[in-house]
UniProtKB/TrEMBL annotation:
CDD domains: MoaE. Its EC number is 2.8.1.12. Pfam families: MoaE. InterPro entries: MoaE_sf, Mopterin_biosynth_MoaE. SUPFAM superfamilies: Molybdopterin synthase subunit MoaE (SSF54690). This is Molybdopterin synthase catalytic subunit. The keyword Phosphoprotein does not apply.
Amino acid sequence: MSDAVRLVGISEEPLSVADVLASLEDPTAGGLVLFVGRVRDHDGGQGVDALSYSAHPSALDRLRDVCERVATEYDVTGLAAIHRVGDLAIGDLAVVVATTSAHRESSFAASRALIDTLKAEVPIWKHQRFSDGTDEWVGSP
């Protein structure tokens, strides 16, 4: 694993921004960009009451691969990505990604690539339950 990849995880427990930030402590890093994805109360014009995330058994390995690739492609000193699975409530943290670099430009670009690639390639699926009693799977094959 690249020295830049500091924390990678999929957790059934609540996510901690403090843990992500602690994993990225580095006196050479002048920039840190953090993205926190939270469960919102609506999607596509419908009210969301609850949701759950499920992960394929390969999801952690795929997440590690994405992190390694981003760390290699961008000039970062540190990188972290954690995603929640299980039942989540409105306001819960669903995903936290962060990168550090000597300068902010690299961290902004790497963090954007990290969250976008994670969402596109890591097999984690969202099951939303809407206020009207309907439901929807997002990201499932």
